[in-house]
Amino acid sequence: MGEEYVYKGGRRLRLGYTTGSCAAAAAKAAAEMLLTGKTVSGVRLRVPRGDILTLEILEPELNKAYAACSVRKDAGDDPDVTDGTLIRARAEKIPSGIEIDGGEGVGRVTKPGLDQPIGAAAINSVPRQMIAKAVDEVREAAGCEDGIKITVSVPGGEELAKRTYNPRMGITGGISIIGTTGIVEPMSTSALIETTRAEMRMRRAEGAETLLLTIGNYGKSFLARELPLAFEKSVKCGNFIGEAIDSAIELGFGGVLIVGHVGKLVKLGAGIMNTHSAMADGRMEVLATCGLLAGTEPETLKRLMDCATVDAAIALLEAAGTKEKTAAILMERARLHLDARARGQIKIGAVMFSDKYGIIGKTADAGELIERIVREAND
User: Fold this and answer.
1) Percent of the chain beyond pLDDT 90?
2) What is the mean pLDDT of residues 173-178?
3) pLDDT > 70? residue 236
4) What pTM does this model have?
5) CA torsion sign, 282 to 284 to 290 to 295?
6) Mind spelling out the 3-state secondary structure of 131-172?
7) Under the phi-then-psi rule, with left for phi > 0, alpha for psi from -120 to 50, and beta for the rest, what region is 365?
8) What CATH fold (topology level) applies to the domain 5-184?
9) Whole-angstrom Cα distance, residue 289 to residue 312?
10) Angle at 280 (CA atoms; ends 325, 329), nearest 5 degrees
């Protein structure tokens, strides 16, 4: 594959390739070196998306016991913490089959519900399949009937992992080898959603029946101060509220409580389930509509439409004496839209807060969901 690009937000962004592709390419080269006794400078690898990558092989090492080499991760224009990292594979003969394990800098799974079982190296299923397929191709071409063990390592991976979600998800000692298509798409929505799903899956495997969702770290700070909730057990869904609700239903949660700053969650009043500003705004339009229904004077509503922040708009509503009624209408509208997204399959609620004004409002089921979360945490 030559250089390929996608266009997002008017920008041309270069594609890259995943740690899984790097591991598979390094494994293929290491296996070829092991079986032929010759060093390899590059390999071709077909990834699950269908692309054929030609990747440079670095640091070849060959002796009678094993062969090893590295591939440098290229994340393209994606702000990936693993960009430029060396992914290394070591190949050695075993009696039969293909074994895949992790070495230095590759994490170990310590909690249930993730892609791999407890105790296994954090090399996800698709990369494992890619590695096995690549090594099998080499074995077949060489007419080899012996088995091969592949050990994937990432020099510096343990330190690098501190900048990822791995410590929070119970993956210790290094990074994960991941990727479903083999290709990194810059600022990929699907990658962000899958990270959230993975953490939700882990919480479900731990026995959680009621899911606590936050929009970001700002929300978690509020939880610690104002609500009796175990914020360390929450899952951050970012802007992708709709997708998080869908995943919660799929994973079998009985309830979902969403807690976030009103500056984001006010959009739920219009049924906006992706709260990123690039997708939709409508904050002041929602507040103005709710304010109108609450009896706010037209002159105040006109001023509200010129506000740059939701806190500024709330200040106007408070001065007009309609803040509480406006908030109640907003929460009811949010409830209707959340229930519509949940399709009656799960109990769902939301708590909106402002750092300046505290809790702005709760949907009708929020209180019950808070009690459930507290009870589950204490069981």
Assistant:
1) 71
2) 96
3) yes
4) 0.72
5) negative
6) HHHHHHHHHHHHCCCCEEEEEEECCCHHHHHHHCCCCCCCEE
7) alpha
8) CbiD-like (3.30.2110)
9) 16
10) 10
Q: Band the pLDDT of 220: cuts 50, 70, 90.
A: low
CATH 3.30.2110.10 positions along the chain are 5-184
Of residues 119 and 114, more confidently modeled: 119
Average pLDDT over residues 238-253: 95
Per the rule left: phi > 0, alpha: psi between -120 and 50, beta: everything else, 150 is beta
Inter-residue contact 3 to 74 (CB < 8 Å): no
C-alpha–C-alpha distance, residues 124 and 262, integer Å: 37
pLDDT the model gives residue 228 = 74
Per-residue pLDDT of 326-371, as tens digits, reads 999 999 999 999 999 999 999 999 999 987 888 999 999 999 999 9
Q: Are 69 and 139 in contact (CB under 8 A)?
A: no
Of the given ranges (63-72, 97-106, 158-167), which has the lowest mean pLDDT? 158-167
Predicted local distance difference test score (pLDDT) of residue 187: 63
- Between vectors from CA 164 to CA 160 and to CA 169, what angle results, nearest 5°? 125
Single-letter amino acid, residue 1: M
Cα 161 from Cα 180, distance rounded (Å):
20
